[in-house]
Amino acid sequence: MTRTRLAELAPAELESLRDQLTARLDQLRGAGLNLDLTRGKPGPDQLDLSNGLDGILAGDFGASDGTDTRNYGGLRGAGLRGIPEARALGGEILDLEPEQVIAGGNSSLSLMYLVIETALRDGLWGPDSSWSDEATRSGTPVRMLAPVPGYDRHFTICEQVGIEMVNVPMTDSGPDIQAIELLLTEDPMIKGIWCVPKYSNPTGCIYAERTVEAIAGLPNRAGRNFLVVWDNAYAVHDFEFPRTPLANILGFAQVQGTAAHIAMFASTSKITFAGAGLGFLGGSETLLLVIEERLRAMTVGHDKVNQLRHARFLRGRLETHMQAHANLIRGKFDAVQDHLDQELSGLDIACWTRPRGGYFVSIDTRPGLARRIIGLAAEVGVALTPAGATFPYGRDPEDRNIRIAPTFPDTLEIEAAMEVFTLCVRLAAAEQIIDERRSAP
Ligand SMILES: Cc1ncc(COP(=O)(O)O)c(C=O)c1O
Q1: What are 223-238's pLDDT values in tens digits?
Q2: Per the omega criterion (within 30 degrees of 0), is the bond before 242 cis?
Q3: Which residues line ligand 1 (CB under 6 A)?
Q4: Which domain, by its residues, includes 248?
Q5: What are the pLDDT digits (tens) for 393-405?
Q6: From start to end of 150-260, where are the E strands?
Q7: CATH of the domain at 285
Q8: What CATH number is given to the structural domain containing 423?
């Protein structure tokens, strides 16, 4: 279907369109909608897929190495690094050997926090490697690269521990490597980068192999003690099978001598129960040893019973399980795309991503409109992620990125919410073009 770009409509046509859209929005205002596209949470039907976790142990609490998972501690480091079968599960998700993985508690985010805090205070690579000490010596704050749009909780960690963030643009194949290399040559206090390499939050892109290789080499191009935070939260969350592969960053890092500078994370939050899954840290023995020492002060050990439950539940059937998730959510993502295609394509007022996995769709509107669109949608009862949330400090410099999370609502709710959303995008764009024309000399 060919459509006239909104900016090419004659003034009277554009004003009539604005009036029609406003009238429709007014109608919807009375409809008492209460819809939410903000939550990157599994739907209740997805959670049901893992109800088999309940009772799976049937009284058999012994791990494969003989560890009694009910007690403190464990054999051969199982207390702090996790039981062997849970480490193997982490290895399967992260494409690593079990020995390269620590299986933790229910949150990978808290492991990220721990790694960042350790790098900052004590250093990850020996006594002389603390980022804060270097910051004090140089009188310059520690900085990290934040590919944008990105995941707000990564940004919150930085804000909380006092690390400044530097925006780097995302492309369809991952963060812009040229921009990164330029920044790194100019600023030795840039000490790390946040990466969500597969079905990135929120754009849904998968980092290309050449990008993964380049990122593995960044610790050689940056100032001292550079860390790649490789948050592979959506490693196995494909909609189509066989799964789309992601290049193995640790393999590239081993070749380039940077393996100790890569910290890999994953979790089962969106595989089993978001509130009661397992988090994993993967990487070199250097990294695991330092973090194990920190963990030793924090806990006698993570929940090994839950580790055993997960390992038994997912053994040999991770892919089948993820296919079942895909069958539940594929249609929701298709509904989002259908609305965007039918109601916005050809108007030249927005562009959006078409992820084939993960949890989000990212939409860029005309600059200056995200806040307005989100406000309009809220007026009629549709909650969207706050404007700016996908940028450090909540500041989207162009005020144009909106993240949509379609997994939690049901398809009918998504249809209704997307009708409102696309209406608000068109209305805000029409208003803006009318204003621009009025103020044009
Ligand atoms: C990129 C990314 N990392 C981490 C998390 C949270 O992980 P966890 O539940 O393991 O702490 C999320 C959740 O939305 C996410 O999108």
Answers
A1: 999 999 999 999 999 9
A2: yes
A3: 40, 107-109, 151, 196, 201, 231, 233, 267, 269, 279
A4: 63-315
A5: 999 999 999 999 9
A6: 164-171, 174-175, 190-195, 227-231
A7: 3.40.640.10
A8: 3.90.1150.10
